[in-house]
Amino acid sequence: MKPDSALSNKIGGKEFIVTAEYLPRTGTGTQIVEDCARIFKSGPVAVNVADNRYGVAMSSLAASVILGRAGIEPVYQVVTRDRNRIALQSDLLGAASLGIKNVLCLSGYHQALTGCPESANVFDIDSIQLIAAVKKMCDEGLLLDGTKIEGPFSMLVGAAANPYLRPLELNMIRLRKKVKAGAAFIQTQAVFDIEEFKRWLEMARGEGITEKVAILAGVLPLTGAAEAKKLNETFTDFNIPDEVISRLESAGNEEAQLKEGTAICAGIIKQLKGLPGLRGIHIFSGGNETVVPALVSAAN
Questions:
Q1: What is the pLDDT at residue 284?
Q2: CA 67 to chain CA mean position, Å
Q3: Phi, psi (5° rounding) for residue 187?
Q4: What is the secondary structure of 210-258 as a DSSP string?
Q5: Rounded CA gap, 203 and 201, in Å?
Q6: Which CATH number, 1.10.630.10, 1.10.150.20, 3.40.190.10, 3.20.20.220, labels domain 6-298?
Q7: What is the pLDDT of residues 9-51, one digit of tens each?
Q8: Residue 65 is inside which H or E element, if any?
Q9: Digit-coded pLDDT (tens) for 168-189
Q10: Quick one: which of 142, 216, 267, 277 has the fewest CB in 10 Å?
Q11: What is the rounded distance in angstroms from the CA atom of residue 215 to the CA atom of residue 241?
């Protein structure tokens, strides 16, 4: 069944696509989600809702529904770290019944990198298998075990990619698998080293991948040099050059570094626009959703 979402329609067109991120908080109140929805009114076609990225927070499913009711199209994120295939398919059925039309399939950071390092991981299936499962639910109306789904099921399926994973040949193998499994859009990890990102994009374009899937480059407004250093040291999918960190340090105090981080991000967006094979950007808010309107404006 063909997905019917604003993001799907954008992918089917030729416009530059902008998506953004909402990072759910550790709480039960809906007000902060609704406040962020008002911020997002200024431009992103859809907003990703993170799934317990750094530890326990409001569920992606609940926050996605709240955003949707506030007039913002959500991209429901699902990580395979915390659920087996029974729970994953059950949550997807529930999401579809609640009107969610987009899903981003992820493996998720290892629990050692979250606030709950003592928790057990699941990883019953990986992100590629999850993409294939959602595609099967959409195209055939069947669960993984062949059980027929009662009622319509239609979701636009997305995946993530790390453009800095080397060797590039291995990177392309994994990217091709995600596209073959059914991903319609790819959101990359945050881009800071533009030349290395160009190498990755050019290779994807050369293999015809950009003709089959919409690639959105991730961008992240850094809060300061301390955050940049921590991300480089903690996560393998961040590649923040020394010159970016030096520029943040040279800006001055925390407030000045915050402004400089936004300025650096806006500059990266301007350099990314127009790259052959790139369909748009994905703005990682890092929980600072108030910066999104300025970056949407930078993306024009």
A1: 96
A2: 16
A3: -105, 125
A4: HHHSEEEEEE-----HHHHHHHHHH-TT----HHHHHHHHHH-SHHHHH
A5: 5
A6: 3.20.20.220
A7: 999 998 999 999 999 999 999 999 999 999 998 789 999 999 9
A8: helix 60-69
A9: 999 999 999 999 999 999 999 9
A10: 267
A11: 23
